[in-house]
Amino acid sequence: MEEEYYSLTKGAESFLIKYLSVSAYTIPTDGPESDGTIEWDSTTMILVEIEAGGKMGIGYSYADISSAYFIEKRLKALVIGKNAMDIPYILKSLTDSTRNNGNCGIISMAISAVDNALWDLKAKLLGLSLTLLLGKVRDDFPIYGSGGFTSYSIEMLQKQLSGWAEKGIKQVKMKIGREPDKDFYRVKKAREAVGTKVELFVDANGAYSTKQALKMAQQFADLGVTWFEEPRPSDDLHGLHLIREHSSSATMNIAAGEYGYNLPYFEQMLAAQCVDVLQADATRCGGISTFLKVGHTCEAHQLPFSSHCAPTLHLQAGLSLPSFFIAEYFYDHVRIENMLFDGVPQPLDGALYPDLSRPGLGFEFKYADAEKYKV
Q1: How close are the terminal C-alpha atoms of the chain, in Å?
Q2: Which class for 267: exposed (0-12), middle (13-18), buried (19 or more C-beta within 10 A)?
Q3: Are 279 and 265 in contact (CB under 8 A)?
Q4: Which domains does the chain have, with CATH numbers?
Q5: Which of 146, 148, 202, 260 could form a disulfide with 265 if both were Cys (CB 3.0 to 4.6 A apart)?
C-alpha cells in the first residue's frame, strides 16, 4: 500500500505546473474590414504557454492586449504550482479570484486563454489528442465560410463567397447592417454568386432595431437566407425573442451568443427562447471548459450549438458534443491560424478533421514567423 501511495504521489508531482508565459501578437488585416457596427484593421492574439512534466501546452484568445497584462499580473501566480490535471479546480480559483474585477470581457478572455492552454497540456501529458481524451460523437466538424465584410465591394463579396462554395463549403455567411438600405441588394448579389445549392447566412452584429430586423428577415427569407445572426445585440434577449417568434420564415434560424462570458448568461438565453442556434466562443466564454458546459446545456434544451470564430481551437472540443451543429470558419482567424500555427486542418468537403496522431489540440506555434507581430 505504501508503495502504491508513493507511486501515485510521485505521479501527481510530475503534473505540477512549473511555468507560465504570456505574449501578444497583433496581425494586420489584408484590407479594410467592417461589419454592421464596427471597423477594424488588425486582430490581436493572446498566447499562453504552460509547462508541466516536460510538456508545453499552448492556448490562445483573440482579445485586447490588456488581457495579456492581466494574465501576467494576476493569473500567472494562481496557476503555477497547481496540478495540470485539475483543470476544474484551477478554473474555479481563477474565476473566484477575479470576482472584484468582474468575470466578463477582458477578464474572461484572459481566463479563456489560460484554460485553453491547460487542456492542450493535459492531453499532451497523457499522450493523447484532445479528441481522444474527451471522446468523440462524430468524425466530421462541419463549417460555414464566414466573412463578406460590409467594407467589401460587390465583386470582392461575390469572389470570397463563391470561392468557399467552389471548395466544397456548403454554407457561407456575410456581414450586413452598416447600410441597411443596401443590404437586400448585397444579399441578392451574394445569392447570385453562390447559387441555390449553397446555404446563405447573414450577420447583422446587432445593428438593426427590432422592427428593422423583422422587415429584413422577410426580405432575406425571399432570397433563401437560412441563418440570421444577431439581428439585435446578444444582450437584448427580449428583442431577439420577438424576432424569433414573429419572423414569418420557418426556415430561418435566429442565432446569437458569441458575446456570452459565463454559463449563467447562456442559460438565460435559452430560458428566454430567443435563439434557434446558440453560439459560444472558447476564446471568450471561459475557455474549452465552459464551451463544453454550454454545449451540454444545449443538449439538455435540445437546441443546436455552434462555435464562434477560432475554428482550429474549437475543432476537437466540438467533436465531443452531441448538440454540435456547425462551426464558423472565420476569414480573419483562418488566415491568422494558418500563418502562425503548424498542424492547422484544412477543409475537406465542407468539414474539418483532426489529426489524431498529434497530441493535445494538434497544433504548434511558429515562433519565428510570429516574431514580427509581437507586441
Answers
A1: 53
A2: middle
A3: no
A4: 2-125 (3.30.390.10), 132-367 (3.20.20.120)
A5: 260
Cβ-count burial of 2 within 10 angstroms (0-12 exposed, 13-18 middle, 19+ buried)?
exposed
Mean pLDDT of 174-187: 98
Task: Kindly calculate the radius of gyration of the chain based on its CA atoms and give it in whole angstroms.
Answer: 21
Average of per-residue pLDDT across 293-301: 98
Q: Residue 72, exposed/middle/buried by CB under 10 A (0-12, 13-18, 19+)?
A: middle
- Helices 263-271 + 287-301 axis angle, to 10: 20
Task: Check pLDDT > 70 for residue 230.
Answer: yes
Question: Which residues, 6 or more positions from 34, have their beta carbon under 8 angstroms from its beta carbon?
Answer: 40, 149, 150, 151, 175, 178
Helix (H) or strand (E) holding 51: strand 39-52
Res 6 pLDDT > 50: no
**pTM of this prediction?**
0.95
Residue that is written with C-alpha cell 425573442 in the block? 241
Q: What is the residue whose three cell numbers read 447573414?
A: 202
